[in-house]
Fold this sequence. Notes:
The chain is of the alpha+beta class. It has two domains: 2-56, no CATH class; 78-124, Cytochrome c oxidase, subunit Vb (Cytochrome C Oxidase, Chain F), CATH 2.60.11.10. 26% of the residues lie in helices and 20% in strands. Keywords: Acetylation, Membrane, Metal-binding, Mitochondrion, Mitochondrion inner membrane, Transit peptide, Zinc.
Amino acid sequence: xxxxxxxxxxxxxxxxxxxxxxxxxxxxxxxxxxxxxxxxxxxxxxxxxxxxxxxxxxxxxxxxxxxxxxxxxxxxxxxxxxxxxxxxxxxxxxxxxxxxxxxxxxxxxxxxxxxxxxxxxxxxx
Length: 125
C-alpha cells in the first residue's frame, strides 16, 4: 500500500517537472504567478466577510467595537445600544479593579451604576 502511494507521488512529481510552457520554459505554479498573496478580504467568507465589509463602510452591525466613552454624567451619559427595551451592563468602577458590577439597564431615563455613580442610557440600535 505504501509503495503504491510513493510511486503515485513520484509520478506526479515527474509530471510537474516535465510541464513546460509553450515557449519551452518550465511552468511555475505559485501564488505570485496569480497576482500575489491573497489578502484577508479576499479569503474571508460568511460572517467574517460581512463584518469586514461593514467596517470598511464605517458601520458596526454586531456591536463588536468598543462603545464611545462619554463623561458618564447625567447630562452626558454613556450610550449603550440595544435591540430590546433592556440590557445587562457591566461596569468596572475603578481602573485597577478586578470585579465587575452588573446591573440591568432599562429604556427611558439615564441610570446610575450602583458602585461608582456613572450614568448610562439605553438607545435603540
